[in-house]
Amino acid sequence: MSAAKENPCRKFQANIFNKSKCQNCFKPRESHLLNDEDLTQAKPIYGGWLLLAPDGTDFDNPVHRSRKWQRRFFILYEHGLLRYALDEMPTTLPQGTINMNQCTDVVDGEGRTGQKFSLCILTPEKEHFIRAETKEIVS
């Protein structure tokens, strides 16, 4: 019986008075939509091509600074997940996900990476380095 109290509902249903809360459990929308099955409920709010620094890149090491950045298609969903894949096809499995709800900061990455239009997304687990081809994209 206690398990039912911890998770009284499985699908988000908007409350008629507050659309960001669930009518069944009153928890916020993002607490329901963080698994793959429910991602289809979330609306994409941004999508576009960005470059991602390879995992394990140490920008203090001159050899790592010249590593090739990976071009990926990023989609930011309304509930805060930022997913990236090899192409823009909806059926392509994402290569990675950044939970922007856990993001502690987004800072200019140019000083650290040596790359123009780069950003560092800081989360408790990791630093994610991305860059765009123009300033307007990262503004």
From TrEMBL:
Pfam families: PH. Residues 43-139 form the PH domain. Coiled coil: none annotated. InterPro entries: Actin_Cytoskeleton_Reg, PH-like_dom_sf, PH_domain. Gene3D superfamilies: Pleckstrin-homology domain (PH domain)/Phosphotyrosine-binding domain (PTB). This is Myosin phosphatase Rho interacting protein. It comes from Homo sapiens. The lineage of its organism: Eukaryota, Metazoa, Chordata, Craniata, Vertebrata.
